[in-house]
Design goal:
two-stranded antiparallel sheet; 5-stranded antiparallel sheet; alpha+beta; OB fold (Dihydrolipoamide Acetyltransferase, E2P)
């Protein structure tokens, strides 16, 4: 074995070790920086995003069980039935939950109409007050 062959072998060994170390370090950093976002936080972000960029529509709240609101609506001739879990923001629900059953406004993502909300931290589609004294709402845009 000549001196040149020995240097090439030694250099390629160090290069391989360096690449392996960089990969391991990269994987460790990825794992640390890419922490899993809790479900509650993901849902909060979804609600706020739909509120900010969603289109307004008319819907019908069909039931409220515990902290889940069930509702239906139509977009572009397609009927949707959805449920929104409000466990983390249950205080946003009306005191008299049965009064919330019936017509309501909702917001939906125009690119994905199945992604919708009837309430979030910054907005509520539930009717306020006595239904008999309410005037009709404008049509959805």
């Amino acid at each position: 074995m000549t001196a040149v062959d020995f240097m090439i072998t030694r250099d390629s060994t160090w290069l391989s070790v360096g690449i392996a170390a960089a990969l391991v370090l990269g994987l460790i950093l990825c794992k640390i920086l890419r922490r899993e976002i809790p479900h509650e936080e993901r849902e909060r972000r979804r609600r706020l995003a739909v509120n900010r960029s969603g289109k307004l529509g008319d819907g019908e709240v069909t039931d409220i069980e515990h902290s889940t609101v069930f509702y239906s609506y139509n977009v572009g001739g397609v009927s949707y039935t959805a449920a929104q879990d409000l466990f983390t923001v249950e205080e946003l629900l009306p005191e008299d939950r049965m009064s919330a059953i019936g017509p309501a406004l909702l917001k939906f993502d125009p690119r994905n109409p199945a992604n919708s909300i009837v309430i979030c931290e910054e907005w509520s589609g539930f009717q306020r007050g006595d239904r008999k004294s309410q005037t009709s709402r404008p049509a959805a845009r």
